Amino acid sequence: xxxxxxxxxxxxxxxxxxxxxxxxxxxxxxxxxxxxxxxxxxxxxxxxxxxxxxxxxxxxxxxxxxxxxxxxxxxxxxxxxxxxxxxxxxxxxxxxxxxxxxxxxxxxxxxxxxxxxxxxxxxxxxxxxxxxxxxxxxxxxxxxxxxxxxxxxxxxxxxxxxxxxxxxxxxxxxxxxxxxxxxxxxxxxxxxxxxxxxxxxxxxxxxxxxxxxxxxxxxxxxxxxxxxxxxxxxxxxxxxxxxxxxxxxxxxxxxxxxxxxxxxxxxxxxxxxxxxxxxxxxxxxxxxxxxxxxxxxxxxxxxxxxxxxxxxxxxxxxxxxxxxxxxxxxxxxxxxxxxxxxxxxxxxxxxxxxxxxxxxxxxxxxxxxxxxxxxxxxxxxxxxxxxxxxxxxxxxxxxxxxxxxxxxxxxxxxxxxxxxxxxxxxxxxxxxxxxxxxxxxxxxxxxxxxxxxxxxxxxxxxxxxxxxxxxxxxxxxxxxxxx
Length: 483
Prior knowledge:
Blueprint: E1 3-8, E2 11-17, H1 24-35, E3 43-46, E4 49-50, H2 57-60, E5 67-71, H3 93-100, H4 113-123, H5 126-133, H6 146-164, H7 172-181, E6 188-189, E7 192-193, H8 198-212, H9 224-229, E8 231-238, E9 245-252, E10 255-258, H10 266-273, E11 275-282, E12 287-299, E13 303-309, E14 311-314, E15 319-322, E16 332-334, H11 341-359, E17 380-381, H12 398-401, E18 408-423, E19 431-437, E20 443-447, E21 450-454, H13 456-459, E22 470-482
Parallel strand pairs: 1-5, 10-13
Antiparallel strand pairs: 1-2, 3-4, 3-5, 6-7, 8-9, 8-12, 11-12, 13-22, 14-15, 16-18, 17-22, 18-19, 18-22, 19-20, 20-21
């Protein structure tokens, strides 16, 4: 990687490394971090004219120690007037971010929309952000490999940048650490980094964080990621031929929605995904036999992740092909009938309390203290669909609505908070976008560095059936009650 100096206005940056395996846009993002000049405003003089975002470094012939000249103006923060009304553009960036109501976008560093959309969806989970803020590496060197630690720190840092900025963020450091930890994301074609599968990026990042964000000293929540996203499944494995039957339990971080000609709705696809056939050796038959595995949810997470299994390997073309079939999904998802009998019994009381609260149209507010009901102090936890009387979603925190003795009980009812979509015919091409519900209840489409406000009624239209963006991963947030 050659090291060059860059002259900009009166400033000189003497040692800027250029990774010639990455497109020039990445180099421009480096300069954006140094100068505050957005990539689209940068004019960098090189041999043959101006440096283009997709130019080939080998044809430019940059040499070690070469001085490059850059022109362009940085984005400046306008000072607030001393008197009179204060407009949003006059506020500091941190206050602008709060006023806008959503975090910043992420620059595409060259087919990195799969990574950007994954980060934007997971960034919407406040409990995950809190765990990352509290993350330290003290006393964990023997338990955690260094690359996992670096990726966890990089995730924490990029989340922090998204919260602090209104201008787009260049996740360059995160991208470099991700590729070092998982080399499959470094694949190139004709000198450019290839598009990758967002679900694979999501899965690998979730696995890394699950290993990092463990707190052996915490009795209540030793495994943060598992408590937030982990789904416990209990499975009945039966062989019709031999009559053998066994029970298995496992933890997963997502449910699969299998798509076939019979599947028109998410619920149908989830039922298909909880059934599978296995071929293994039967002890009684002493040969291979077919076993039917039927699973049920035995423990629910705070955030339920669902993957639409839209991609399969097509032998004729030797690549991943995409199922374009329309599969509808709801804003409110009830998984009660997918749960085990044991879990259903536990859900009965919380579900009744939730229904009573909603039926009474009390939303998140407590009942009259003089009513004498045993449900007096029960409050719903962030029931996204309820109203405070002004049409806005209300919220209650444990500190406001429940005493320290009360425990959060989930109901099996979830509200949609994020959708990761894919546009195109192959997982390794096309374009990924994140659609995320903000704390104020509004939806925002994060198309790399372009956040675009959306209407809630348009979110469920991302269900497929054509070449437009269609849901690939959905994330739902649990409704619960404190009892």
